[in-house]
Amino acid sequence: MSLSEIPTLSVLYRTKALKAAASSAYNPNHTLNQKVSHIRHDITKLHVDAIVNAANTSLLGGGGVDGAIHRAAGNGLYKECRKLDGCSTGSAKLTGAYNLPCKKVIHAVGPVYHGHERSEPLLRSCYRKSLDLAVKNGCKSVAFSALSTGVYGYPSPDAADIAISEVRSFLIGSDGEKIERVVFCSFEMKDVEAYTETLP
Ligand code: AR6
User: Fold this and answer.
1) How many domains is the chain built from?
2) Please, is 58 exposed, middle or buried when counting C-beta atoms within 10 Å of its C-beta (0-12, 13-18, 19+)?
3) Which of 51, 58, 96, 179 has a 20 to 30 Å separation from 137 between CA atoms?
4) What is residue 14's three-state secondary structure?
5) 192 belongs to a structural domain
6) Whose Cα sits closest to atom 12 in ligand 1?
7) Do 84 and 95 meet the contact criterion of CB atoms below 8 Å apart?
8) Phi then psi for 2, rounded to 5 degrees?
9) Is the residue at 11 inside a domain?
10) Model confidence over 9-59: pLDDT tens digits?
11) What's the predicted TM-score (pTM) here?
12) Can you give the residue range of the structural domain that contains 144?
């Protein structure tokens, strides 16, 4: 799926796939609505500059989206990951994409959910560091999987809230203009619902 086929929030509002909230913490922002997308899709099929993997500290693959990404990318990704010496929770590292249609893979290590207070700063940090890495490597379009919401047990509504607010802060910040599109890529219905309720 190419970037031009991935609808922005502006398109989702126009086609009524997303309903504006009666009240929102933020004023409507046309620029942000044109820079942010939400779709339900297999992230390994997206032709964006970078996809963000929900990895673990070993960076050597696993189940869920991590497994799907390693399978689709092929052995070259595993070989490169082996040289990275792992990654701490709340941080991220970037690799090539091998057989994937994207250009780079950002491996972010989300927290195992141990309650909001302990886990929130680490999940926020994953989104921030992934976007920092994207900018440093010239990636202008970035698709995020719903980090930590699978095996790691982060409740989807809370995780969506963190993802959206952290991406928003980044996009209105000093490096925001270097990112042209952020795609929230949901897979399960619970995440589709969490983003659909939290985005407006
Ligand atoms: N495309 C997009 N999203 C997907 C895909 C896909 N192909 N497959 C699953 N998801 P999870 P975590 C969604 O469990 O909770 C791994 O074993 C899925 O529905 O993959 O951060 C790692 O190696 C969910 O919403 O990651 C770690 O050990 C989201 O991806 C551990 O799991 C994340 O679910 C990380 O756990």
Assistant:
1) 1
2) middle
3) 58
4) helix
5) yes
6) 148
7) yes
8) -85, 165
9) no
10) 999 999 999 988 777 777 888 899 999 999 999 999 999 999 999 999 999
11) 0.97
12) 37-198
